[in-house]
Amino acid sequence: MAEKPLKKSALHGVKILQLVEEIPEGCSTPDFQQKPVALALQEGKNAIFRALVCGEPKPKVHWQSTKGNLSNSSKYQISSFPGSKEHVLQINKLTGEDSDLYRCTAVNVYGEATCSTRLLVIEVGFRKNRKRHKEPQEDLRKELKDYRYLLKKRAPPPKKKVDMEQVWQLLMTADRKDYERICLKYGIVDYRGMLRKLKEMQKEREDKMAQYLNAVSNLRHIRVSKEGVATFDLELDLKYAGSKIYLYKDGEMVPYGFDNQTKHCLRRLGKRYQFQIRDLQPEDAGIYQVKVEDAEIFSTELDASAIPARVLVPLAEVHCEEQSDAIFECVLSNPCPNATWNFRHRPLQPSNKYEVFVSPDGLTHRLVVRGIRFSDMGPYSLGTGFHGSTAWLVVEAGKDKSVLTTSADRQLQARRGGLEGRSDIYGQGRDASQSPRSKYKPGTGGFPRETQGPRGHFSQGLADMEVQQGEAAVFSCTLTRDLGPVAWFKDGVKLSARDGVVFEEDGLVHRLLFDHVRGTQAGRYTCVAGNQRSEATLSVHDRPVIAPDVAEKLRKPLVVKAGKPVTVKIPFKSHLPVQAVWRKDGVEVGSSSRHGAQVALGDDFTRLCLPSTGRKDGGRYSVTLKSEGGSVQAELTLQVTDKPQAPQGPLEVQNRQGAGVCLRWRPPKDDGGQAVEHYVVERQQAGRSAWLRAGQAPADSTTFTDADVEQGKKYTFRVRAVTSEGAGEALESTEVLVAPEALPGPPSSPTIQSASSQGITLTWTAPRGPGSAHILGYLIEKRKKGSNTWTAVNVQPVPERRWTVVDVRQGCQYEFRVTAVSPSGPGEPGPPSDAVFARDPMRPPGPVRDLQVIDTSHTSITLSWARPDVQDGDTAQGYVVELRASDSLQWSPCHEGTVPVTTFTAKGLRPQESYFVRVTAVNDGGRGQPTALDTLVQVMPVAVRPKFLMDSSTRDSLMVRVGDTIRVPVYFEAVPMPEVTWLKDGLPLLRSNVTSTKDGLTQLLIPVASLSDSGLYTVVLRSLQGGEVAYRFSLRVAACPKSPGPIRLQENVPGTVTAEWEPSPDEAGDIPLYYEVLTRSSAHGPWRQAADRVHTNHFTLLGVLPGHEYHFRVVAKNELGASLPSDTSQPWCISRQRDKFTVKAPSYREPNLSQKPRFLVGLRPHLLPQGCECCMSCAVQGWPRPHVTWFKDEQSLAGNPAVYSTDLLGVCSLIIPSVSPKDSGLYKAVAENALGQAVSMASLIVTESSS
């Protein structure tokens, strides 16, 4: 069976092969919902690949690598979860050989799906170079020679093929100003097409980025620093903190670290991510991409021209004779057009003296110095901007073998210098001649032959020295005889006293002294006497320096609490690269040696960070800072304090037969770094969840007796050690039963001996009865008066029967009780004491002032008074109001407690009863002297004479219409309530007129007014003492007037017309009325007012025009409304005199508008639920106007009461107010006239509602 072409999966990189022509419904080929993610891990870690596979039937999944199958079960663990789509491959204990391409394949009967992922194992430590150690070591000179030959003869590297997909990704994140450069570099010529494609790709990229990112901003492309480090950074706002970030170069994933020790490293600060590429090499050029999971976020390019050139083969020291030529040669890692030659730090220009050559590949640079003289001796250097190489030119005076080195020696020395100068490859920029391999120390052997000079001139030549910066140094040489003045040179430059050195001469011994050697004083020194000289090298080691104040701080122990992070940052100064090694108790500390420890090294600091400290982190830490100039070490002590461990068990519990239980334990093994202050003992009664504090034991005691247990009950005890860090873990005992014994009886009620704001002193008597013979002490409790909660005063029982309670609040009232405690436990508490105030003795307040009665009622009396005068702080805190009946001698308070204000209303008194009243001020010192009224106060309201309350809305006359409701409220004031009488025309009001009186309001209410209700109404208020007051108002009930009589018209004056009418029958009544006259002419259609408020029965209209018809209307009016109008029967008209003329009208033929009926809009079908209204409409046209007849199922609906039809200007409608299922059917509208008929039909369906 032929296989079908590959199907496309929703995930990129997944290949699906269909094995059958047709797939049954409900089945499918395998596919990946989530494919494995590429990993880059260190050696020793475990790699886990996860894949989500779907398909029906469920596919089988197997894993394999390019090196073969994964049959080793201890190395490779393949698993899947039942009922789940997830399949897992776990590779244990990664090694370098596990770096490979792994493939996952899912197969069922309809097809197979395949995807691949890559695993990159990062080798650490010596394993990085293990293959290099296996290579045989060759001779150094041959290696250099062959290497130099290969550099000259090597072919140009093959041009790297660039994936255009990476170029498009680069364009998407590049600046617009760089579009032209990138397009020109990679051969993109369709600029507009490029912009269109970028716009499409940008939208797809944003949709994919939205799965993992909230925002991405501040993109900064690659830039190379002066130190030769390439950096690029961006800000990412990740949706999920666990999202993985990958770095790719030219489409291949690049592993990176998080410190400065790896070539590619990532530094993160908040949302800022910065990638660094160190130790730049030509092969580092390319396109770098940052991905979050599988979404491409940022692309940038490192151009080969931006990588600084490094020195592969440095300059070598050259020895030549005077007037000969010297050749310097240096090989760089990549072409550098800006490389410059310098002599004594001054640039050289090509001339006849100095000839500069560059090889065709731009890597080898050569300088030829013609016609050497002694003034040409000194340091020559080649600089590339970031790196460089320096070597000396030594000019020889003759060919004496004792002074000059042989050619072979010079070549060997140059080769050694070149080899040691390879440190420039790593950016050190150190002279090739200053190599640790060419050290000659005084006292350790002879000197190089070229430094000794011939015998008979120097008995002792200069010796190479190595000193630390800041130390003193001395160069010394001894001549065999006096050769004249001696001169000293440094790097070919003559020295003087201004150069910071001291010249000393002692006979034939010449010395050059340095008080404090500086780094700039390192170099080659020459002592010249006559034609003879002696040379030596001064090497100044610049070891790292730690500031003294930092070292002083490190002497003090660093104390932190467990769980807190610790960061130790040690700044230092060094001109050379530094390596930092942290150790704890002699064991090296690093990110791989201890979980969580982080070691960082910056340009001027090193830092140790422990994210979460524990007790095991405490100890002696040291850091060693090492460079080529030496090393320095700093130490510090870290003390981690924590809560103590639980005391050592078991916790022994011994019952002491009525005296409680005795507990024993041992101190904890680890006190957390702090001394134990005490132990806390707690107990828990069986059946309860709460732990109660039993007491505490001192630090030097590991026993405790708990006497507060109840006999016959079970308890569990636990003990905790307490330090300044808090309480530690608890040591718990087993459940213990306390044997019961007789308890002591209750002591007597405490007696208050004294009370003040500082304390209250109590005394009591001992209890009696069984269990009271051996009393250990007493427990005192207190409570505030009115409260049900008792609070312990003392924790330990007191043996005395007298105690002063000092924990009181001033001004509060307390009660106390005492409980006896015996060896068997506490007994029942005694009765409480009398309530007592915690306050200092004070004077009672004085008498109140200005006591008076301000109001009385039938059952109450309201009093007011002024505060008493204050003397010596005797301020009144409240008042007591007392009453005494006139026939009693006993004063009774009117309230509970005290009254805080200076007014009080005594309620619930007997009406008409007389009382004596007095008020007493009280405070903490007691009651003051009472103040009483001299007279009796009678319980009755204060009499108020009746009077009416009138305002602007009160009127003396009212007029209402017949049939309206009449409500007339009248407000009054009177105490006591007076007798209210309503009169009409001097007679008592009839029962049909309803009146009501309540709380100062009386009102007249007539539901339906009639003409008989008109009259003069009077309200009479009569008090109990016989006083009267009256209020009168007139009420008129009337109806609208009747219409006037017939209207007569006559012309009394030409051009005018006079209208006369019969008066209204109501004109003779007592309600005044008037008339309104309205006219209407043929020139003005509507009625217009001609006159208003006419009090006569006639009206003359002026300006009557001949030929116009005039109609008149008269309406009678009063305050209640208008009558019906009275109109003229015939219009008034004055004939107009006109001349006769003849008009000949044109003849025309009327058009024939006849048309048979036709429907402009026909009926439409309707589907309605039961109970709704149905309106079926259509539009019909025709002339003469057609008549429309409605039919249902061929039966006419004319006369059917359940429906009705309308016909408005040709729009015909049939309306059914409430449809039912029986109304369903075919409806027809038939339009007919004399010319024919038209029919329109539609159906109506009525659905029944579901219950």
UniProtKB/TrEMBL annotation:
- Principal place where this protein is found? cytoplasm
Cellular component GO terms held in the UniProt record: nucleus; Z disc
**Record-annotated Ig-like domain positions:** 30-116, 448-539, 946-1038, 1151-1247
PROSITE patterns reported for this sequence: FN3, IG_LIKE
Cited InterPro entries: FN3_dom, FN3_sf, Ig-like_dom, Ig-like_dom_sf, Ig-like_fold, Ig_I-set, Ig_sub, Ig_sub2
Entry keyword set: Coiled coil, Cytoplasm, Disulfide bond, Immunoglobulin domain, Nucleus, Repeat
Which positions fall inside the Fibronectin type-III domain?
Answer: 646-741, 746-845, 847-942, 1043-1138
Whether NADP counts among this entry's keywords is no
Keyword Repeat attributed? yes
Give the matching SUPFAM superfamilies: Fibronectin type III, Immunoglobulin
Q: Where is this region: Disordered?
A: 406-458
Localization: Cytoplasm, Myofibril, Sarcomere, Z line; Nucleus
Its subunit composition reads:
Interacts with FLNC. Interacts with KY.
* Name of the protein this chain belongs to: Immunoglobulin-like and fibronectin type III domain-containing protein 1
Naturally occurring in which organism (per UniProt): Ailuropoda melanoleuca (Giant panda)
